[in-house]
Amino acid sequence: MIVAVGIDVVLVERFARALGRTPLLGDRLFTDAERTTPSGNPRSPESLAARFAAKEAVAKALGAPSGLHWHDCEIVADPDGRPWLTVAGTVAAAAAEREINRWHLSLSHDGGIASAMVVAERLAENERVEARGEQG
């Protein structure tokens, strides 16, 4: 069952300027893995802006509770490069309160705009077992 949807858009140029003005902002918003590609190169401003939009979309899907930590929501990529979410700490606790146990994520950037859409889902116990079986 879908519990909530979150969406956010970010102007890439404005976001890049903020990162340039405040050197520690990138460290505060992103984990080491989020700031670099799987090959170890720095991510583009477009890619970082999309990841920031995803974190904002997650907060919106959770109802924007206070006290969420940026690093407790991480956008990672599977071996094919498809982005997905991992949640821990404050974000995982807020999700658990709402019985959210599955996330869907879409990122995009084009024409100077980065966007992200997040769907928060609550799977029944029998669906969770089935979903785990599909993954592995």
Can you characterise this structure?
This protein is an alpha+beta fold and 136 residues long. It has a single domain (2-135), classed as 4'-phosphopantetheinyl transferase domain (Ribosomal Protein L22, Chain A, Alpha-Beta Complex), CATH 3.90.470.20. It is 41% helix and 28% strand. The protein is built from six helices and five strands. The chain has a three-stranded antiparallel β-sheet. A two-stranded antiparallel sheet has the order 2-3. β2 and β3 form a beta hairpin. The model is unreliable at 130-136 (pLDDT under 50).
What is the chain-wise order of helices and strands? Answer: EHHHHEEHEEH
Share of helix, binned: 40-55%
**Main β-sheet, spatial strand arrangement:** 1-5-4
Radius of gyration: 15 Å
Mass-distribution shape: globular
The oligomeric status of these chains comes to single chain
Give a quick account of the main beta sheet: strands, pairing sense, barrel closure.
Answer: 3 strands, antiparallel
Quick one: how many beta strands? 5
> Going by CATH, what is the homologous superfamily?
4'-phosphopantetheinyl transferase domain
Number of domains: 1
- CATH top level assignment: Alpha Beta
Instruction: Quote the distance from N terminus to C terminus.
Output: 22 Å
CATH architecture: Alpha-Beta Complex
Beta-strand share of residues: 25-35%
CATH topology: Ribosomal Protein L22, Chain A
Count of discrete alpha- or pi-helical segments spanning 4 or more residues? 6
Q: Unreliable segments (pLDDT under 50, ≥5 consecutive)?
A: 130-136
Q: Pairing-aware structural class of the strands and helices?
A: alpha+beta
Mean pLDDT: 90
